[in-house]
Amino acid sequence: MAQYETYTLDWHGILIEVRYCPCWARLYRGHPDEYSMAHIEIESIEPARAVLPITETGYRSHFVPEPEVIDGGGVLDYVSEALDEAAANPVWKAQELAARQYSLF
């Protein structure tokens, strides 16, 4: 059974739970380039299921080679970078601005 680590991340005032399994599946068994496929679950928990720039539902399941997570500075840095990169998209910026404008009324 896969073993998950659980972390919390505060991203722009949204509390996010990050569940990480560094070895969800082992690939290339016996091959010199053997590595693990990691699994990351990302869920906004406060506010519950808040929209994030990487998911409209507040939940995302993502499989990635474990070396990418390590090279990204660990799972929290990896997720933060993904969120920041997606948040730079003009579509997200417009959506975020519209949500703030709506909350004024």
Written overview of the protein:
The chain is an alpha+beta fold and 105 residues long. The protein has one domain. It has 3 helices and 4 strands, in the order E-E-E-E-H-H-H. The chain has a 4-stranded antiparallel sheet with strand order 1-2-3-4. The chain is elongated. The relative contact order is 0.16.
Question: What is the gist of this entry?
Answer:
The chain has helices at residues 66-71, 75-87, 90-103; strands at residues 5-11, 14-27, 35-46, 59-65. By secondary structure, the chain is of the alpha+beta class.
**What's the end-to-end separation, in Å?**
49 Å
Supply the number of structural domains: 1
Gyration radius over CA: 16 Å
Number of helices, counting only DSSP H or I runs of 4 residues or more: 3
**Cross-sheet strand order for the largest sheet:** 1-2-3-4
Instruction: Give average pLDDT, whole number.
Output: 87
Helix content: 25-40%
**N-to-C order of helices and strands:** EEEEHHH
The count of β-strands is: 4
Overall geometry comes to: elongated
Q: Which percent band covers the strand fraction?
A: 35-45%
Q: Which class of secondary structure composition applies to the elements?
A: alpha+beta
Question: Which residue ranges are poorly predicted, with pLDDT under 50 across at least 5 consecutive positions?
Answer: none
Biggest sheet record: 4 strands, antiparallel
